[in-house]
TrEMBL record:
Keyword Coiled coil: no
Protein name: Site-specific integrase
GO biological process terms on file: DNA integration; DNA recombination
Gene3D superfamilies registered for this protein in UniProt: Intergrase catalytic core
Region (Disordered): 1-20
Superkingdom as given in the UniProt entry: Bacteria
Domain Tyr recombinase: 27-207
Family that this chain belongs to: Belongs to the 'phage' integrase family.
Length: 211
């Protein structure tokens, strides 16, 4: 007997084994809603500065936790308004993508991590990691903020923030090929899963159609 679904949620599609999905096998949502992401960011304001900027980076760029932890001072383009990530999931090295982020995030990164000072030095901060943490340390920092925000389940994770970014981008009318670029997906079909938005996000899309 299949697990019951929460009201307003769709059954997990059965036809794509191994493919990325927005719900787990129990029908639990794997992404944060807009309201939940806002709660997460408010809770992040109460934690140490380095943890706060990590949480902000994950929420506003949609990057993977490992990609955030690999970010170096020279890859924060303050003038261009983008973060440049090494796309770590691709098979070959040396693949980068630039993701536009809000000015508030850039200002916080500069304030907390001394980016302008680092970029004035020889090498412009190359090799100077913003968070010289292990993956587990980074995960624990994010998890603590999720708990403080009252969030739990599959969505309460760095991956939940990444999925939230994808859903929010598609719901805002960002073209799929642009979202694909920002998220570093090899295939557009992977990005297209975010077009299958549900709940409040689906209602927003429907309202745009109704005019």
């Amino acid at each position: 007997m299949s697990a019951p679904r929460n009201p307003g949620q769709r059954a997990v599609p059965a036809g794509a084994p191994g493919g990325m999905q927005l719900f787990d096998r129990d029908g639990s949502r794997k992404y944060l809603t807009v309201a939940e992401r806002a709660r997460f960011l408010r809770a992040a304001e109460q934690v140490p500065r380095e943890a706060r900027t990590l949480c902000m980076t994950l929420a506003w760029s949609g990057c993977r936790l490992s990609e955030a932890l690999a970010l170096t001072a020279d890859r924060v383009d303050l003038a261009g308004g983008v973060l440049v990530f090494a796309t770590l999931k691709k098979r070959q090295d040396g693949i980068y993508r630039a993701v536009p982020v809000p000015p508030s995030l850039l200002e916080a990164l500069d304030l907390v991590h001394g980016l302008r000072e680092a970029q004035r030095r020889r090498g412009r901060g190359a090799g100077v990691r913003l968070w010289p943490w292990s993956r587990m340390t980074g995960w624990r920092a994010v998890h603590a903020v999720m708990v403080a925000a009252g969030l739990s389940g599959p969505a309460a994770s760095p991956k939940g923030l990444r999925h939230a970014f994808g859903v929010a981008a598609v719901s805002s009318g960002i073209p799929l090929n642009m979202v694909q670029k920002w998220l570093g997906h090899a295939q557009l079909s992977t990005t297209a899963i975010y077009a299958d938005a549900v709940g409040a996000e689906e209602q927003d899309i429907a309202r745009k159609m109704w005019g």
